[in-house]
Amino acid sequence: GEERGGSGRGGDRETSDCVCFSSGTFAVISIMIGSVTEKLAPDSDFTFLNGTNGTAVLDVTARDAYRVQIAASTTVLSGLFQVLLGMVRFGFVVTYLSEPLVRGYTTGAATHVVVSQLKYIFGIHPARFSGPLSQVYVIPTRAYNSRCFVVVSMAIYVCVCVCVCLCVCVCVCVCVLQIVAATLISYYGNLNSQYDVAVVGEIPRGLKSPSLPDVSLWGTVVGDAFAVAIVGYAINISLGKTFGLKHGYKVDSNQELVALGLSNTVGGFFQCYSVTSSMSRSLIQESTGGKTQVAGVVSSVIVLITVLQLGTLFEELPKAVLSCIVFVNLKGMFKQYLDIPALWKSNTVDLLVWLVTLVCTILLNLDLGLAASITFSLLTVIFRTQLPRYSILGRVPGTELYLDTDTYKEAKAIPGITIFRSSTTVYYTNAELYLDALQKKSGIDIGKLLTRKKKRDAKQKRQDKKAKNEAKKQVRHTHTHTHTHTHTHTHTHTHTHTHTHTHTHT
Predict the structure, then answer these.
(1) Which of 113, 404, 418, 471 is the most exposed place for a label (fewest CB within 10 A)?
(2) End-to-end CA distance of the chain
(3) CB 99 within 8 A of CB 336
(4) What ranges make up the beta strands (E) of 258-400?
């Protein structure tokens, strides 16, 4: 995965990249990509019958090679979707991601990450599920497949609690010591071979040479690629808004969309699969003080060195240790459950958005859950415009404050003046409700006022028309009296040739 620290613009903290981001693989995106590869390249397509002993043999090499092509094609196509959406300013959709929606969504995403790590912590091999309600099916499977589930749960719980307490002060040292100690214990204790403890395993060295993904697969994976693009962007911008609210800056949503799309498009040519902002690594980077591009550069260099040279040193690292570190660093996301009592006291509609988003994200997965959450959030906007809060304002004596007279008894209405307040904009869908509330609050019959106004306007119109006609008649009479006169003049001339000229001029 690629680590990216963001690029803030100098000292301007108003609009910038999220400098706490650490981009790379994310559990939910990995699950989505994995479900696509398993759907298009199932084991049954690469299983053949061994003619020697009559057993079924799975061609793992051919299967994995084809799955890599599917993942790369999906990644490139999702990256192109993100770049195109960024160019057409699709980032406006972030306007509809309210703070309760974002916090509920990230909490639900953290739940997906936790569930995905259970198999490594408990050392079990459950069946894989995808689609809506997959988490409901996965949790019971993972629980009952472990015979010592309760004992291991308590042990892991104690370890995680200890790690949480230690990580408050020395997060980096604890994580590094955990990894080193666990690797040494696993290596010298032969935990993988003797006790079947899952370890990281072989890490390929070097980087793949760039190659063009199979374009013929695009028509098959276009729907999944678009879902990956939207979910990846939603996770990215949700974390961005969370960190932005915490540190006081605003994230450029369109710029993040283009940057994420370019990362996926270029990475797909190197047989990488789709990346987004990693929740656990971003929280680690933020908790250790990474606030500039240097954090991303250092992370990238370390990852590059590890991939090229140090990968073999981590082959014996137990996966359970990595999962515990992920658990600990997700504690900030689960602290967002404290939003529930706070929202209950401040705004019940926002609380409903938070809870619906959380439930939809967990049950419907991140793609359908995001769509359902945004739809519900928009419905609450319509609900708020249909049922706004109306009040009569009064002035608090000795101040310039105007408050609701029903809520604040100190506020007194101004004699002869009624100040009516609506909590939302008036438009055609709530105009009738506005009039009804105005009549009820003020005690004024709007219908009678409108009838009187129409009669007064009609009477005034008749009077204006009559006055206009009288003015025209007066002007016409004055013009006739002033300019009417007759003048007659006759000339008679007699010559040798008789000519008579008569001139009459009036």
Answers:
(1) 471
(2) 108
(3) no
(4) 276-277, 390-395
Residue 235 CA to residue 454 CA, distance in Å, equals 57
d(C-alpha 264, C-alpha 72), whole Å: 9
What's the Cα-to-Cα distance from 323 to each of 12, 35, 116, 173, 334, rounded to whole Å?
Answer: 37, 21, 9, 17, 16
- Residues 178/324, Cβ–Cβ less than 8 Å: yes
Asked whether the beta carbons of 333 and 186 are under 8 A apart, the reply is no
d(CA 22, CA 383): 38
Q: Tokens 């073999």 identify what position?
A: 312
In angstroms, the CA 154 to CA 148 distance is: 10
How does pLDDT run across 49-78, given as a tens digit for each residue?
Answer: 776 666 777 787 888 889 889 999 999 999
Q: Is the dihedral of CA 209, 214, 218, 221 positive or negative?
A: negative
Cβ-based neighbours of 405, under 8 Å, separated by 6 or more: 391, 392, 393, 394, 411, 412, 413
* Structure tokens given for 221: 């994976």
Between CA 178 and CA 183 the distance in angstroms is 8
User: Strands (DSSP E) along 202-325, which ranges?
Assistant: 250-251, 276-277
Question: 420 φ, ψ to 5°?
Answer: -105, 130
User: Residues with Cβ < 8 Å from 89, sequence gap 6 or more?
Assistant: 254
Helix (H, G, I), strand (E, B) or coil at 319: helix
Chunked into runs of 10 residues, the chain (506 residues) has average pLDDT values of 37 51 76 80 78 72 87 92 89 77 84 78 66 62 47 49 49 70 85 79 78 87 85 81 76 85 90 80 73 79 82 82 77 84 89 93 82 90 82 86 84 84 80 82 79 88 86 73 49 43 40
Domain ranges for the chain: 15-334, 389-470
pTM for the full predicted model = 0.64
Residues β-bridged to residue 23: 277
The residues pairing with 404 across neighbouring beta strands, listed in sequence order, are: 393
List, in sequence order, every residue forming a beta bridge with 57; answer none if it has no partner: 48
The closest alpha carbon to 27, from 190, 235, 179, belongs to: 235
Task: Map residue 53 onto helix, strand or coil.
Answer: coil
- For residue 58, the cross-strand partners are 47
pLDDT of 287: 72
Phi-psi region of 201 (alpha: psi -120 to 50; beta: other; left: phi over 0): left
Burial class (CB in 10 A: 0-12, 13-18, 19+), 256: buried
What are 280's two structure tokens? Answer: 């656990």
Nearest to 361 by CA among 346, 349, 377, 338: 377
Q: What CA–CA distances, in Å, run from 95 to 19, 186, 289, 352?
A: 21, 49, 29, 19
Phi, psi of 103 (to 5 degrees): -70, -40
CA angle, 423 as apex, 418 and 427 as ends, to 5°? 95
Q: How far apart are CA 104 and CA 340, in angstroms?
A: 10
* DSSP string for residues in 20-37: T--EE--HHHHHHHHHHH
